[in-house]
Design goal:
alpha+beta, Arc Repressor Mutant, subunit A, 4 domains, 5-stranded antiparallel beta sheet
C-alpha cells in the first residue's frame, strides 16, 4: 500500500475520534475508513507511537478508542489537528508566492508553530505532507520587484496615492502616472494593481512587474464605491477590466468531456450537441487571453462568436500553417527510391 494512502487513512481515523464523544470501537472505525480491523489496530498503534493521545476504555463487553479531550480542542498551539495540516498543505500550495513578504511570513508562521509541537507530532505532520504532491503553477520571479510589491501593499492599506513609472507590454516607451491603488490582485502566477489612473481618468490594471519606479505619496483617496475585484479576476481568461463580450466556442466530441468537467468561468453556459460535442458560452473581458485559451485546444475548438475573435484565431492558424507548412510538405513527400 502506498505511504500516502496509509497516512490519509490514519488521518481519517483521527477525524472519527475527534468528532466522537463516546469513542469508537475498532469495527466501527474499520467501517468508517473501509478497511480490515487488523489494519485499524496497526494504524492506532502508529498514531500512539507518533505522540497522539489515543486511549482505550472498556465499556461493558466492548473496547472503545478515543482521543483525550484536550487534544480534541487544541494542540499546544491554538489550532485543531485538521487546521494544522491544512496550514502546512496551504504553504506548499502557495509556492508561487516565493520571493514575497507574504510567502516569507507564511514560512515563518509554520516554523514557529512547528517549534511548539512535540517532536513525535511534528514528525507525523512531516509524514502527512508526503501523501500530497503539489505541482505549483508557473509563476513570475517576484523577488525582482519585492520592494515595489511591499510599497503597493502599504499604499493599498493606507489608501495613499502612488506615483509610478510604467511600461506596458506592447508599449515602446514608459509613462508616468498617479494612481489610486484600490486592490492588489494575484492571478496566474502574477501580481497586478487595480486602481484609478489619474492620467487616463479611468480604472486600469497594471502588471506589478512592469512598474519601473514607484513612490507612495501623502495624498489620500476615498474608498472606491461599488468596486468588485472578483469581476476583474476573469477565471482562466486573464485579468482585465472593461466591458465583457459574449464568447461562443464549439468543441468537438473528443474535447467535450474535458470541457464539461471544469468550471472555466463564473458566467459559463454549456450546451450539449447531438453529435457529442458542446457549445461553450461565457461573458468575458480580454480578447487576447480568450484567444490563447481557444488555441490551446487546437482543431478541437472553433470560435462561433464574436466575429473579431474568430478572425483573430483564423489569422493565428494561418500564421502557424505558413510556419510549419514546409516541414509538413517534406514529411508527406514520398521517399526516394
Amino acid at each position: 500500500m502506498a505511504r500516502g494512502e496509509q497516512l490519509a487513512r490514519q488521518w481519517r481515523i483521527l477525524q472519527e475520534l475527534i468528532v466522537s464523544r463516546a469513542g469508537r470501537s475498532v469495527p466501527e472505525l474499520a467501517d468508517a475508513v473501509d478497511c480490515h480491523v487488523r489494519t485499524v489496530y496497526r494504524d492506532l498503534d502508529a498514531l500512539q507511537a507518533a505522540g497522539f493521545p489515543v486511549t482505550t476504555e472498556r465499556e461493558g463487553r466492548r473496547t472503545v478508542w478515543s482521543l483525550l479531550d484536550p487534544a480534541k480542542r487544541s494542540l499546544p498551539v491554538p489550532f485543531s489537528l485538521p487546521e494544522l495540516v491544512a496550514l502546512y498543505v496551504g504553504r506548499r500550495l502557495a509556492a508561487g508566492l516565493e520571493g514575497t513578504v507574504f510567502y516569507e511570513a507564511l514560512e515563518s508562521l509554520c516554523a514557529k508553530i512547528r517549534l511548539l509541537l512535540p517532536p513525535e507530532m511534528a514528525a507525523h505532520l512531516d509524514r502527512e505532507q508526503e501523501g500530497l504532491a503539489v505541482a505549483a503553477p508557473p509563476a513570475k520571479r517576484h523577488a525582482a520587484y519585492r520592494g515595489i510589491l511591499e510599497q503597493l501593499a502599504a499604499a493599498v492599506s493606507a489608501r495613499r496615492k502612488v506615483d509610478l513609472t510604467y511600461r506596458a507590454a506592447a508599449a515602446a516607451r514608459q509613462t508616468r502616472r498617479r494612481v489610486d491603488p484600490y486592490r492588489l490582485l494575484y492571478h496566474g502566477g502574477s501580481f497586478y494593481l487595480l486602481g484609478f489612473c489619474n492620467l487616463r481618468k479611468d480604472i486600469r490594471i497594471f502588471a506589478v512587474d512592469r512598474i519601473r519606479r514607484l513612490a507612495v505619496t501623502e495624498e489620500a483617496f476615498p474608498p472606491p464605491q461599488g468596486l468588485r475585484p472578483e469581476a476583474v479576476l476573469q477565471a482562466d481568461f486573464g485579468v482585465y477590466h472593461g466591458p465583457p463580450v459574449t464568447v461562443r466556442v464549439r468543441f468537438a466530441p473528443a474535447a467535450a468531456p474535458y470541457v464539461l468537467e471544469r468550471i472555466w468561468h463564473p458566467t459559463q453556459r454549456i450546451r450539449r450537441e447531438p453529435d457529442g460535442g458542446v457549445v461553450f458560452e461565457a461573458d468575458v473581458a480580454g480578447g487576447e487571453e480568450i484567444k490563447r485559451w481557444v488555441m490551446k485546444w487546437g482543431a478541437e475548438a472553433e470560435v462561433l462568436a464574436p466575429e473579431g475573435l474568430r478572425r483573430a484565431v483564423a489569422a493565428e492558424a494561418e500564421a502557424l500553417a505558413r510556419r510549419y507548412g514546409a516541414a509538413l510538405r517534406r514529411a508527406r513527400r514520398p521517399p526516394r527510391p
